[in-house]
Design a protein that fits this description.
4-stranded parallel β-sheet; globular
Length: 508
């Protein structure tokens, strides 16, 4: 299934260098003296950003960094990170953010998969023979600013490192021209502009977070709040209010925490947001419903995979009350395939595959191997289902190939959430030796319900799941918890299938 026509992309990079293009834009569009970044109580203009990047490039050049050199950034989200990132791009170096890697073991594994020419860090990494550079050198006034390097059209700009479920290192590469594709895909849906103030809650160690913090705001002339997640003090709500943020971006789990802090029935800084963008994760049905109730048409759920770098899908605003049904964002393409590699019928779950110019398989290969699929179909770790009108449902749980159709957790979540006693629910799909199994976690409005009340609710949920969805979608267990996002807090457990016959008899 091809859910969108192929669309040509012709990014305008006359000298191939995205950092140079950003500086040229800031000068020609009248942004040079406008605020680009807000960090605590400090602000930095576009001029500060690009002049600082030129000095950082000079510091890198003095260390022997040049075209094709890989530079690690082991830095927190702050202005030094921005200067280092753009400074390395000016020289044609390839940037790999590694601030999310904790522990020497993960750092050593990354060094083997993606050895750096230089690592910029606040604290020593202790990874000989990796050459290290303290972040303080980035701002050294003695470093002579250097102009940006002219690069070939397909030059690599940055990489993102991750480890898959089999502990295999994966390196996702992106080129200088890829950001234009990210921008083309999200331009209408998000609509960033010079009057926006963005606050991003996704770490810049992912392509999605990096795009929301650095690439897209600088390309569209927007200001960005650099929010230190690790620092005590100002929370997200206070930061939105103090800086006048108009666009909030982040994973659903971050929004879940914010809604918990916000409370109900009173006006908060979130009311002034123009757009609330969720991405990087698939929200549960119940959380998606809460977010839609809170933000309405201002909510935008975009789907990005490590293979693509940024958003390839956005939810349809006419699909209330869910934000898991959407459509592909051109110039990308999506399809859903079964175990035989063929397109699945309408309504049948399969593996989501993506295609586009920025798509790469993400496998750490030998240096010099082609990291992109050049328009071919690339499998993802997610399951999806297509509708008659070409819309695509993206499911919360990763896809696992199977010889038989898998139960869909989303359907169970939507059904359980309709019960008036249920506040929130999430379902997990697991694999046993012989068949896939579902487990549902449920939290109730009445947190003081006794055992008898819990049992009645459990039987009612099981019965309805069996009657509406069929036996294949009845959960193996229903676990009552305080918070479905933290199933370790479970307080009651029911073995549902063993009691299903009794439940049917009692409610017949």
């Amino acid at each position: 299934m091809n859910t969108a026509p192929r669309a040509p992309v012709s990014p305008c990079l006359p000298d191939g260098n995205f950092a140079g293009h950003l500086e040229r834009l800031a000068r020609t569009q009248g942004w040079w003296d406008r605020t680009a970044y807000l960090v605590g109580r400090e602000s930095f203009t576009f001029a500060d950003v690009h002049e600082g990047a030129a000095r950082a490039a000079g510091a890198f050049a003095a260390r022997g960094v040049g075209v094709g050199s890989r530079v690690w950034l082991a830095l927190p989200e702050g202005i030094s990170f921005i200067w280092a990132f753009l400074g390395a791009l000016r020289l044609g170096a390839v940037v790999l953010p590694v601030g999310h890697l904790t522990g020497p073991g993960r750092m050593r594994a990354a060094a083997l998969a993606a050895p750096p020419a230089l690592a910029v860090c606040d604290e020593p990494l202790g990874l000989p023979p990796v050459a290290e550079m303290p972040a303080s050198e980035l701002t050294a006034r003695q470093a002579a600013p250097v102009p940006w390097e002219k690069l070939p059209a397909q030059a690599r700009a940055f990489e993102c490192y991750d480890v898959d479920r089999a502990d295999t290192p994966c390196l996702y590469a992106h080129r200088h021209s890829d950001t234009f594709v990210f921008d083309q895909a999200t331009r209408v849906a998000v609509g960033l502009g010079p009057t926006d103030v963005c606050l991003n809650l996704s770490p810049p160690t992912t392509a999605f977070g990096l795009g929301n913090t650095v690439l897209l705001p600088l390309l569209r002339g927007s200001a960005t709040v650099l929010h230190d997640r690790a620092a005590p003090g100002e929370d997200v709500l206070s930061s939105v209010q103090r800086h006048g943020a108009t666009v909030l971006m982040g994973p659903p789990s971050a929004y879940d925490r914010i809604l918990g802090e916000e409370g109900a029935g009173r006006r908060t800084p979130l009311d002034s947001l123009r757009k609330a963008v969720i991405g990087a994760e698939i929200p549960s049905y119940a959380l998606g419903r809460r977010l839609l109730h809170r933000f309405g048409s201002r909510l935008l759920h975009v789907f990005a995979t490590p293979e693509t770098g940024h958003a390839v899908w956005a939810h349809r605003t006419d699909s209330l009350p869910t934000c898991s049904r959407g459509q592909v964002l051109a110039p990308y393409r999506l399809r859903v395939v079964g175990p035989d590699g063929k397109d699945t019928p309408v309504g049948t779950q399969g593996q989501l595959q993506v295609s586009g110019t920025t798509v790469g398989p993400g496998t750490a290969r030998r240096e010099g191997d082609e990291p992109f699929t050049q328009g071919q179909w690339t499998p993802t770790a997610y399951a999806a289902t297509k509708d008659e009108d070409g819309s695509v449902w993206i499911h919360e749980r990763p896809h696992r190939p199977a010889a038989v159709p898998l139960p869909v957790p989303d359907r169970l979540e939507r059904l359980l959430a309709e019960h008036p006693a249920v506040r929130e629910t999430t379902a997990h799909l697991t694999r046993s030796a012989r068949e896939p199994r579902l487990r549902a976690y449920v939290s109730l409005h009445d947190t003081a319900a006794d055992t008898e009340r819990l049992e009645l609710i459990r039987l009612a949920l099981l019965t309805r799941a069996h009657r509406v969805l069929g036996p294949a979608h009845v959960p193996e267990d229903i676990v009552f918890v305080h918070d479905p996002a933290r199933p370790a807090d479970a307080v009651h457990l029911g073995a549902s299938r063993r009691d299903l016959a009794d439940a049917m008899r009692q409610t017949a």
